[in-house]
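From: lab user (bench 3)
To: helpdesk
Subject: output format question, protein + 2-phosphoglycolic acid

Hello, I'm new to running complex predictions and I'm not sure whether the block I got back is the full result or only part of it. Here's what I submitted:
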Amino acid sequence: MEVIIQPTYTQLAEVAAEIIRDALLKKPNLALGLATGSTPIGLYKALVRMHETDGLDFSDVTTFNLDEYVGIPPNHPYSYHTFMATHFFNAVNIPAENCHIPQSTVVGHEEFCEKYEAAIVNTGGIDIQVLGIGKDGHIGFNEPSSSLGSRTRIKTLTQSTLEANAPHFGGTIDAVPKMAITMGVGTIMEAKQCLLLASGTSKAEAIANAVEGPITAEVPASVLQMHPRTVVVIDEAAATQLKRVDYYKHVYANKQKLLSQLS
Ligand code: PGA
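Helpdesk reply: Thanks, we reran it on our side. This is the complete output you should expect:
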């Protein structure tokens, strides 16, 4: 795993956006796996700026979102369809037909999940999968105890996730959807590169467990230790419980030096 520690949230978002920009410049028909939540908002903001001011072109990009709540309409103010439209899709030039988000209804969900997986495969696989992390170590809505080989399916959300999402639903847990459709851990692991983002001290324990703890279904993000190309981009606050901070910083600083000597 490559661990990149940045002083602030804004800087971590910028580094993550640069990783995606560089990949997009090399491969205009990039397939991006996208995440919702508060963490990637800065990344989307930076990509929108790169589109508006530098002409970064998304016209050949395909996207697959990790998850969506079950039981609320796509146009609900806190659906992930609405989130993506607001923070990214409405502001860049990805064709609407290239944007895939899991459906929010349960009707025919098994067939839908199979088709979602097939669509990813037909695109040639996800090139970069953006991930946030829950305080309990979840990725997507793969809650602790999710099979590390799981595929796209419906998951029941934990109390901790319901509490974390309650502010988006009028502050009451009762109003938060209790289930979600999510890519599985196995689906995520097939992405060619994973880009895990985290900010703030509330994520420090989850990041330490994911990066330096044992690989366990109790911390689904820990399986990324088995992924050949995972980049973890975090701020100082989210790095406070890592043991090897000095090493990660040394590696990153010298990589930059080496790359600048080569260019
Ligand atoms: P957050 O959520 O970015 O809003 O903290 C991350 C997650 O729960 O996966």
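A quick orientation on your result: The chain has one domain: 2-262. Let us know if anything else is unclear.
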